[in-house]
TrEMBL record:
Keywords: Membrane, Transmembrane, Transmembrane helix. It holds the Pfam family CbiQ. GO terms for biological process: cobalt ion transport. The lineage of its organism: Bacteria, Bacillati, Bacillota, Bacilli, Bacillales. One of its GO terms (cellular component) is ATP-binding cassette (ABC) transporter complex. This is Energy-coupling factor transporter transmembrane protein EcfT. It is a multi-pass membrane protein.
Length: 259
């Protein structure tokens, strides 16, 4: 399962194809790789399709917006071909349509790759992997973990503050000035509680011998196994395979140059 892949290796397996895809301007390459990512996501993980679709659906509208704006404002180097239709002063050509669709598909590839990582990766294991495999300083790692753990607490405290204000007769503000005052009433207690909790966490970590030393032992040992390298090779190698297939079929386009 993808959830058992080392998070740092998984991050590289997502980041490298994303960077390489940004260089392509044809429709075929991102479309085939998007289908490949979907197969990997639902075939080798326990990600719920309903949950995935709830997150992915809004980006479909964003991708359509990217495609439409690109069709209207395509540069001269990409706007070749015959004119398909005109809107006001804009002429939409076949080249503009292809570039717009390519941009939309690339955007959806980025979203699909990001969801593959986010929905199959534990945040704590990811930070531990960055510390052990990528040599990220422990001070940064544990600081990020502590801040991440505080987020649900702040949400609960904000709800308590709202209920306390409502009990005391403070209604919901409507104007901009009133909303700024409301933000100040909420932010000051939350900031004060956050400072107190951070001090307690710092004292607790110091009392347990935490000094931010890089050469330290770890209770949870993150290792890189053979299947991690296989996953990295498959994710990157499949993109090169799709690019080669696109080249053989005459679709491959990098920075406006067709190969």
């Amino acid at each position: 399962m993808i959830s058992s892949i080392n998070p740092s290796i998984k991050a590289f397996a997502i980041l490298v194809p994303g960077i390489l895809l940004s260089l392509t301007f044809d429709m075929f390459t991102p479309l085939i790789y998007l289908l490949f990512v979907l197969v990997v996501t639902f075939g080798f993980s326990d990600v719920s399709f309903k949950r995935w679709m709830k997150i992915f659906a809004p980006f479909l509208l964003v991708a359509l917006g990217f495609a439409w704006m690109t069709m209207l404002y395509t540069s001269d180097s990409f706007s070749g071909g015959r004119v398909l239709f005109e809107i006001w002063m804009f002429e939409v050509t076949t080249g503009a349509v292809m570039v717009g669709i390519s941009l939309a598909l690339r955007s959806l590839c980025f979203v699909a790759l990001s969801l593959l990582f986010v929905l199959t990766t534990d945040s704590t294991k990811f930070m531990l992997s960055l510390m052990q495999q990528c040599k990220l300083p422990p001070k940064i790692t544990y600081g990020v973990l502590a801040g991440y753990r505080f987020l649900p607490t702040f949400q609960n405290e904000l709800q308590i503050l709202r209920q306390a204000h409502r009990i005391r007769g403070v209604g919901r503000e409507r104007g901009i000035r009133d909303k700024l005052n409301q933000f100040r009433r909420y932010s000051v207690p939350l900031l004060a509680n956050g400072i107190r909790k951070s001090e307690r966490v710092a004292i607790a970590m110091e009392s347990k011998g935490f000094k931010g030393d890089v050469n330290r032992t770890h209770y949870h040992k993150m290792t890189v196994r053979k299947k991690d390298w296989i996953f990295l090779s498959v994710m990157i190698g499949s993109l090169f395979l799709v690019g080669f297939l696109s080249y053989c079929l005459g679709y491959l386009n990098i920075f406006g140059k067709t190969f």
